[in-house]
Write a structure and sequence with these properties.
It is a single chain. The protein has 3 domains: 82 residues, no CATH class; 80 residues, no CATH class; 105 residues, no CATH class. It has 4 helices and 14 strands. It is α+β, with helices and mostly antiparallel strands and 274 residues long.
């Protein structure tokens, strides 16, 4: 057998092995795609639609590559997914009149949304005041003046959905001629939209032997106030500067150039000098 014939047969065998390898890889990819389609097809369309309508942006767009079914259902899930909708941005403002506060809302986003800008839900009250806000929720204090009595109420209100939750006010504390200030802050994490906290800071205007400066926490889960602890070595909380809720902690400034933080979930308090 000639040398050239042996070489030709060797090249033929090499080409044959190459074709078989390519065909094997092609079959493996087709089988993998078929298995993925079968796996994804095991979920009913309404289940897939529900999953897609709750995913954050990055997982949502990645899931469109899972299968053709998920890709087609993503268009129907898009308007249902709150994480993908334009954010409503704006601010409330108003002037104080003799009998009530005149409130307004300025929309600074491109989203057109019907919002209760004048807090019509509280129109039956004589005075309405927004004492704090956090991630779209408002902490509203209302006062109704009747001939025989005066009632005060507090609510956490969503002006976009018009849903409100009544917050039971804590009983007032009376000790001789001593008085105290009570400052409220709202803590709400939009990732957990079914839950919020209200933090109350109680500080006496002068040193009181019977009571310490302390903070209390209202939880929407329990619907009750709980004493969080004492405000040790802290100057007066600044009333004009609102609180900031970030990474699960509520921050406020004091008149003594301190930053106090409260973790409402763990009921933990700390302070740092600026």
């Amino acid at each position: 057998m000639s040398t050239s014939f042996k070489r030709g047969r060797g090249r033929g065998r090499g080409r044959g092995r190459g074709r078989r390898l390519i065909q094997h890889e092609r079959n493996s990819k087709e089988m993998k795609a078929s298995n993925e389609e079968n796996w994804c097809g095991a979920f009913p369309d309404d289940v897939v639609l529900d999953i897609l309508s709750h995913l954050p942006p990055k997982p949502f767009y990645r899931s469109k590559c899972i299968s053709k079914t998920w890709l087609s259902l993503s268009s129907a899930a898009f308007p249902l997914n709150k994480h993908l909708q334009p954010t409503l941005r704006g601010f409330f403002h108003g002037a104080i009149s003799i009998f009530r506060r005149n409130l307004g809302f300025t929309n600074i986003s491109d989203r057109v949304h019907e919002i209760d800008a004048t807090l019509r839900a509280f129109s039956h009250h004589d005075e309405v005041e927004i004492i704090d806000c956090c991630n779209g929720l408002l902490l509203v204090k209302c006062c109704s003046i009747e001939p025989s009595f005066e009632s005060r109420d507090m609510y956490v209100y969503n002006p976009a959905t018009r849903k409100r939750t009544a917050i039971e006010l804590m009983p007032k504390v009376y000790f001789e001629d001593e008085t105290y200030s009570e400052i409220f802050s709202l803590a709400f994490d939009p990732q957990d939209q079914s839950h919020f906290y209200v933090v109350s800071f109680r500080q006496w205007h002068s040193p009181c032997l019977s009571y310490d400066d302390s903070f209390y926490i209202f939880s929407s889960a329990s619907g009750k106030w709980q004493r969080g602890g004492n405000l040790e070595c802290v100057s007066k909380i600044t009333q004009n500067a609102k609180g900031t809720f970030l990474d699960g902690k509520l921050y406020r400034l004091t008149e003594g150039h301190q930053i106090v933080s409260v973790d409402p979930k763990k009921q933990h308090f700390s302070s740092d000098q600026i």
